[in-house]
Amino acid sequence: AAVWTTEEEGALLDFLASHLSQAGDGNFKKATWNAAAAHMAHNHPPVQGGKSSYHSFFFALLTIIQLKKSYYAVADLKSVASGFAYDDKHGAMISLDNADLWDRYVKAHKDAKPFRNSGFPHFASVELLLPSHGRGRFI
Predict the structure, then answer these.
(1) Bridge partners of 91?
(2) Would the pTM of this model clear 0.90, i.e. be above it?
(3) This protein's superkingdom (predicted)?
């Protein structure tokens, strides 16, 4: 499976943010996803000899679904209830002192695992695409 870089994910989020008016009923239509895939293929072509990972809207949609999961995992980490101090650059900043607590937390919150000591650079961009009631515009 193809994996997008942080820069590519950001470009996709920027594209969708610039097309929010096309999400009239709260969801982007297939035409917007196809346009996003075409935009990504044009502006972020595959490396020489590589296959384009933007050949269909399905991959763009799957990427957004994963980014949304990451957003909610980080939102939970940012809440006081998580018990962790979260920093946008360094994640939950887990050390040996709180590694056991982190391991227990991740068992119940599997999507938080990547943010042990890494931040989520797309938090604000994903939040922009979410209406205030928490239901994603893009899915």
Answers:
(1) 87
(2) no
(3) Eukaryota
Give the CA dihedral 72, 77, 79, 81, nearest 10 degrees.
120
Q: Distance between CA 72 and CA 110 in Å, rounded?
A: 11
Which amino acid belongs to residue 1?
A: A
pLDDT per residue as tens digits for the range 115-134: 999 999 999 999 988 876 45
Average pLDDT over residues 14-34: 84
Structure tokens at 38: 């075409």
Using CA atoms, how far apart are residues 118 and 139, in angstroms rounded to an integer?
A: 26
Q: CA-CA distances (angstroms) from residue 109 to 70, 115, 119? A: 11, 11, 16
Tokens at 94, concatenated: 């887990």
The tokens describing 23, both together, are 């999400």
Surface-to-core class of residue 132, CB atoms within 10 Å of its CB (0-12 exposed, 13-18 middle, 19+ buried): exposed
- Check: CB of residue 137 under 8 Å from CB of residue 129: yes
Domain ranges, ordered by start, for the chain: 6-129
Cβ atoms of 16 and 28 within 8 Å: the answer is yes
